[in-house]
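Example record

Each entry pairs one chain with its bound ligand, magnesium ion.
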Amino acid sequence: MKGTIIRLQGGFYDVMTETKQEIRCRARGNFRNRNISPVVGDDVEIQDQKDGTGYILAVDERSNHLVRPPIANIDQAFLLFSVKEPAFSYHLLDRFLVLIESKQIHPIIVLTKMDLLNEDEMEAIEQAASLYRSIGYDVIETSTEKGSGVEAIRDLFEAKTSVFAGQTGVGKSSLLNAVAPELELATGKISKSLGRGKHTTRHVTLIQLGGGLVADTPGFSSLEFPQELEAEELRWCFPEFVERHDDCKFRGCAHVNEPGCAVKAAVESGEIASTRYDNYVTFMEEINDRQRRY
Ligand SMILES: Nc1nc2c(ncn2[C@@H]2O[C@H](COP(=O)(O)OP(=O)(O)OP(=O)(O)O)[C@@H](O)[C@H]2O)c(=O)[nH]1
Ligand SMILES: [Mg+2]
Ligand SMILES: [Zn+2]
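Structure tokens for the complex follow.
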């Protein structure tokens, strides 16, 4: 029988079968020895014991796999950023976009807690939103206080497997509750002293919602690039750089010190945002430093 892992709990894998039954499974011993650790989102072959339990016999090949949050086979990632509490950061957004782009997963940027902004702050956030829209990203502005943007989010779930990801306290669980109040997911207050959330959600869980599957995930407090991400790959993770790559004088242009670089020219003329370019250079240095260390 075929199914999808929707939850990992206390050494068990909860598997949703094609007939929408939940079966609590253990992994077969031999399977553990082969060093495969199944994660949420994995499509699996199970042996149904007909008593609500079963065994995982095999894990299908993954179309993609994120380490943090640990999940496989995603069609799209909702990247949640609060505009306040915790504060919005261009750096963190670009970092997250690189991670998702490098896995060739479709990102959707979600700005949360829009209700907390005063007029001046709103203007700054609208500038950020239009920058990312101009690159081609979807940006959805939401507030669970006002109920805004909730419909727009729900409409994107159909027939897809989605993941909600973001720092702790940005409002992932709150937004899912706004989409479907019956979920009653636990939410947590922001720590006043730390200025961030308190890791309220502890496990990745796939939920059936809006005709698709959506994962609520534990928030992170920092975001490191995966070991396998190489400096040379970075240039392909910035769509507005990719668009201009053919206009660079040198074919393998890294857009740093090369003459005749179309990307640098676009930064000079203001067509590419300097925040994006500066983050690109910072990330490149970070990855190069890491490569030197190992
Ligand atoms: N004002 C306002 N507060 C919000 C909004 N969305 C969430 N919050 C608050 O932000 C806090 C954190 O929300 P959670 O939903 O627990 O955040 P999370 O991203 O799930 O956090 P973790 O599970 O720790 O990763 C709670 O106090 C929410 O009430 C919003 O749109 N406006
Ligand atoms: Mg949560
Ligand atoms: Zn270039």
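The chain has three domains: 2-60, 66-216, 231-293.
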